[in-house]
Amino acid sequence: MSHSKRILCIGAGYVGGPTMAVMALKCPEYRFDVVDINPDRIAGWNSDELPIYEPGLDDVVRQARGRNLFFSTDIAAGIRSADIIFVSVNTPTKTFGEGMGMASDLQYWERTAHEIVTHAQGDKIIVEKSTLPVRTAEAMERILRANTRGRHFEVVSNPEFLAEGTAVRDLLEGDRVLIGAHDTDTGRAAAQAIADIYRHWMPDERILFTSVWSSELSKLVANAFLAQRISSINAISALCEETDADVSEIARAVGSDSRIGPRFLNASVGFGGSCFKKDILNLVYIARSYHLHEVADYWEMVVRMNEFQMQRFVRRMVKEMFNTVAGKKIALFGFAFKADTGDTRESPAITVARMLVEERARLAVTDPKALANARKDLADINGEVTFTPDPYSAAEGADAVAVLTDWRQYRELDFERIFKSMLKPAFIFDGRNILNHQALRRIGFQVYPLGSRSLTTF
Ligand code: NAD
Ligand code: UGA
After folding, report:
1. H or E segment at 173?
2. What is the pLDDT of residues 187-197, one digit of tens each?
3. Can 27 be counted among the known catalytic residues?
4. Residue 44 beta carbon below 6 angstroms from any ligand 1 atom
5. Rounded to an integer, what distance in angstroms lies between the CA atom of residue 201 and that of residue 207?
6. Please, what is the end-to-end C-alpha distance for the chain in angstroms?
7. Separation in Å, CA 194 to CA 143, 177, 185, 377, 398
8. Which helix or strand (DSSP H or E) is residue 71 part of?
9. Could you tell me if 313 and 400 are in contact, meaning their C-beta atoms sit under 8 angstroms apart?
10. Nearest partner of 89 among 19, 192, 139, 23, judged by Cα
11. Would you give the distance in Å from CA 313 to the centre of its chain?
12. What one-character-per-residue DSSP string does 314-376 give?
């Protein structure tokens, strides 16, 4: 079948794969090619075992793959035949040189710009899908324009707002699509070409148009605001534990104000994921580079508060377990950074596990989807760590259970059985406030919810 438009995505990761799969599903008359330098990733996308776990994704890929959705490592051929090129390569925090630990590492991004210049034969629309520092499009344009040979490259920003674990739903029913383009004839036309893709399923009023710079910066700001809410409620959780107030009641009371809203107010052991910390640090770095130190300090506190929360969680565990966990077995329930994903990037479980091992605890890690990643994350750890998909065997003979991921199935566990198999006193630290604390108390556990008074017998 011949397709009316060819769309390429460079980068077949958590964003590129699901985004293109949903677009292909909804736009059968366009052809979508997804390319990556990593042949294992591409082999995964072409197999029955997709390289990432996302509810509903298997079904979407199965419907579109081979019809108008193709995965390949042939980046040059992809660039040659595409009308529109989405770039969704990784943009991690720099681990070297100027801006180390703060700024975005744009080497993968820049490499794609050079590949596009080398292989493109006609005009192209280049879409920034990755999250990038404000004014990155300028750098991309300079690379592209250094060698146009009569071709026109129009750079558009279209950041992605999907969250892991709900990627397919977010892509199908997102709150908005953001398209940032230059206010020129070619810029406006490019913005419309991108909007035409989304119009296949998104209502017009949810498609927002801005300048390129506002679009780039909006993405960083959206993540910063979301993370800020979590750090705000987590800061209050610390105060609650000292004052007998209950952070869940506070979240309900505060979130009922329609100006504040109820979402993203769940106190937790800390936020994780590949983007919140990275994007805030990037925002901080940008502000500092303009000598806006108060702005930088303000946002940096969101990350510092998150680190404090993770450390505070472990310190509380140690303190409540009679000031020592040395030699004690602790079961970590969940290692993914949130439920419904196998992703462990920046998961608070990594920090908690490392701190507990430093205290010489013995760990049993369990998770329904993230054990392979957990093994890698803890490969260099100098201590006793075992891994099991079965929460019951993780808890067997343990002194404590710490809930670190909000997997729904943990609510439904047989906690009578778990209690019987543990050493006494049996401690439970609920880092996600997902369990029924009163019921656990009745079973006999020493219960430590996050951000409210403990339910203990001593
Ligand atoms: P990822 O690491 O899962 O995927 C990136 C892919 O790009 C990798 O498979 C890598 O091999 C490939 N790649 C790198 N350089 C390449 C090149 N030169 N040519 C071809 N392929 C190349 O990353 P991700 O989680 O999909 O994130 C991608 C971007 O999207 C980041 O900027 C991130 O901040 C942003 N983002 C991520 C999420 C999320 O939920 N993960 C959500 C919104 C935005
Ligand atoms: C987040 C944003 O929600 C997406 O809009 C954005 O596109 C994405 O980052 C990105 O740019 O990568 P994600 O990190 O996948 O998505 O997941 P979230 O649902 O935002 O959760 C992030 C972390 O915050 C998780 O560790 C989660 O458990 C934690 N969290 C979330 C809380 O501790 N409390 C809450 O109330 C909500």
Report:
1. helix 167-173
2. 999 999 999 99
3. no
4. no
5. 11
6. 72
7. 22, 10, 14, 38, 54
8. strand 69-72
9. no
10. 19
11. 21
12. HHHHHHHTTT--TT-EEEEE--SSSTT----TT-HHHHHHHHHHHTT-EEEEE-SS-HHHHHH
Q: How far is the CA of 191 from the centre of ligand 1 (A)?
A: 22
How far out from the chain centre does Cα 189 lie? 32
Segment 363-381, tens digit of pLDDT: 999 999 999 999 999 999 9
Question: What are the structure tokens assigned to 350, written together?
Answer: 């990594």
Residue 426 Cβ inside 6 Å of ligand 1? The answer reads no
**Would you state the torsion angle of the CA atoms of residues 201, 203, 206, 207, taken in this order, to the nearest 10 degrees?**
70
pLDDT digits (tens, 9 = 90+) for 39-85: 999 999 999 999 998 999 999 999 999 999 999 999 999 999 999 99
pLDDT above 70: percentage of residues in the chain: 100
The fraction of the chain above a pLDDT of 90, given in percent, is 91
Distance CA(324)–CA(361), nearest Å, equals 9
Q: Which ligand is nearest to the CA of 282?
A: 1
